[in-house]
Amino acid sequence: MSSGSDLENRYCAQNYHPLPVVLSRGEGVYVWDEEGNKYLDMMSAYSAVSHGHANPRLVAALKAQAEKLCIVSRAFYTDKLGPFLERACELTGQDAALPMNTGAEAVETAVKAARRWGYEIKGIAENQAEIIVCSGNFHGRTTTIISFSDEAEYQKNFGPLTPGFKIAQYGDIDSLKALITPNTAAFLIEPIQGEGGIVIPPAGYLKACETLCREHNVLLIADEIQCGLGRTGKMLACNHEDVVPDGLILGKALGGGIMPVSMFLAKKEVMDVFVPGTHGSTFGGNPLAAAIGLEALNILVDENLAERSMEMGNYMMGELKKLDSAMISTIRGSGLFIGIEIDPALGSAREICERLMTRGLLSKETHETVVRLAPPLIITKEQIDWAVDQIGQVLQELDSIRFV
Ligand SMILES: Cc1ncc(COP(=O)(O)O)c(C=O)c1O
């Protein structure tokens, strides 16, 4: 392989296991490697590139703002942040937003908001606040966030862990009910789990969670960093069940595939717990991020990307279901957020991704058994047909090796 990967292997912490391809350019749904080979990107940087690589409107917004003003910190007002947050609130039905950069920071912001709301509004005794999370969750990698993961690998030798979290069974309303106490400040949930393997809870579950949380004065906080902003065929995954959470976390696609932009949005009563000095970020809400974030939201609406995700996702699902391979245990998804679950006794999701790569299709396994398919939302039917064809051929190759 080229020096790009050698240098990365030599100088970068080995906290990832990349596929052996060195990418150097991207446009639309495609990326190219150093040798000029073209790949269809079915990963979209874990949903961050929903608008496609180098989206012309976003690149124009980036250039225009970069030439005017990039970073001043929130020690001052800027002409860009207000309009961005206003649009985000309008589109999500929330009252106010707190801009951050990465997803994990926005989740940390939500955890701080929930705890403070628990003490100051709900009246929970000092240091007793509890937050309920879900089995199989993934909310990021900070010390507090890994403390409420149920993945041993994420926690090992990173202790002592942050207390104050309980884990309910994802998709099981009784499990949530059993864990709620007067000290419960919030229930934090991914409406569809991404890193957990594109896991969709039973129909009606999210609505039942909303009802239960309201009954017990518990905040419902939806982490839509990966599944939000059109990915699942609606602007928010919560919209599938007409759920309006008390707190909402966005990231990834909010930065238009150009830079990290995240935010925590909430009802006024929740956001008002933050007063000067209680939270912050040097880069959060900078004018460059705000200009890109606003354009990213406008494109989603102007180009009907959520509706497109629903239409293309349904089409891709239909085509994938026609594939005939013993290795497939299930195919599940919503919009252009699809996971093919591979029976580990018969095949390896990693091997499938490696073989797809050699055919010019980039995807990445999640949880060892799931091939994740989450292309930019601008993908066309023809491109989907080509991708499904490649997947079919790889499954056939592997099936035939196994049966020799
Ligand atoms: C649902 C969810 N929350 C939070 C995060 C963390 O985001 P980041 O990697 O930007 O910190 C991720 C990342 O995959 C995610 O999928």
Give descriptors for this structure.
single chain; 404 residues; alpha/beta; Aspartate Aminotransferase, domain 1; Aspartate Aminotransferase, domain 2; 2 domains; four-stranded mixed β-sheet; 15 strands; 38% helix; 17% strand; binds pyridoxal-5'-phosphate
Give a brief description.
This protein is 38% helix and 17% strand. With 404 residues, the chain is an alpha/beta fold.
Structure description:
This protein has 404 residues and is α/β, with parallel strands linked by helices. The chain folds into two domains: 3-55 and 305-403, Aspartate Aminotransferase, domain 1 (Alpha-Beta Complex); 56-302, 3-Layer(aba) Sandwich (Aspartate Aminotransferase, domain 2). Helices cover 38% and strands 17% of the residues. The protein has helices at residues 3-11, 44-47, 56-68, 81-92, 103-122, 143-147, 152-155, 173-179, 205-215, 268-271, 287-302, 305-321, 349-358, 381-403, and strands at 23-27, 30-33, 38-41, 96-100, 130-134, 165-168, 184-189, 219-223, 247-250, 262-266, 328-333, 338-342, 361-362, 364-366, 370-373. It has a seven-stranded mixed beta sheet with strand order 4-10-9-8-7-5-6, sandwiched between helices. Strands 1-2-3-13 form a four-stranded mixed beta sheet. Strands 11-12-15-14 form a four-stranded antiparallel beta sheet, covered by helices on one side. The two termini are 31 Å apart. Bound molecules: pyridoxal-5'-phosphate. Pyridoxal-5'-phosphate binds at residues 46, 102-104, 107, 138-140, 190, 194-195, 223, 225-226, 251.
